[in-house]
TrEMBL record:
Residues 1-33 are annotated as: Disordered. Residues 1-25 have a biased composition (Pro residues). Pfam families: STAS. GO terms for molecular function: anti-sigma factor antagonist activity. InterPro entries: Anti-sigma_ant (IPR003658), STAS_dom (IPR002645), STAS_dom_sf (IPR036513). Belongs to the anti-sigma-factor antagonist family. Residues 46-145 form the STAS domain. This is Anti-sigma factor antagonist.
Amino acid sequence: MTSNPSFPPAPPPAGPSLSAPPPSSAPAADRPSAPALQVHLDPCPDGPLVLTVRGDLDLATAPALEPHLSRASADGTDLVLDLTEVPFLGCVGMAMFDAAANRVRRRRATLTTAVQPQVRHVLHLTGLDATLGCCDTVAEAVAATNGSTRT
């Protein structure tokens, strides 16, 4: 292959490699950890299940939510996601909620979501606000469900 004189070779990258972070010299117990995600599941009498999530939902915290969300969206009961105390919703969380909404709909139930304005804005930008049935409060989200009950 011949070199093209109009396109000089690119210089080598400056700075440290981005392939791996440098090892930490602090003991594991002294390193900061991701804040814990709090998840709570409550059935409403004669109404939907309410899955309450508190904390940032990102790649580090999503594994704590997955088993609760899978169980809550698996049995055909209407589901309300209470995200009013979720200040950050990353892509992994959005994907999880989209999949849960699809599971709930396949079972002919309803999924609605109570969200704070910042998270609602992100869901609107991605088009998930319609999929997740966004409401301002948990009471509004509960009222918006179809009224299916557990069987």
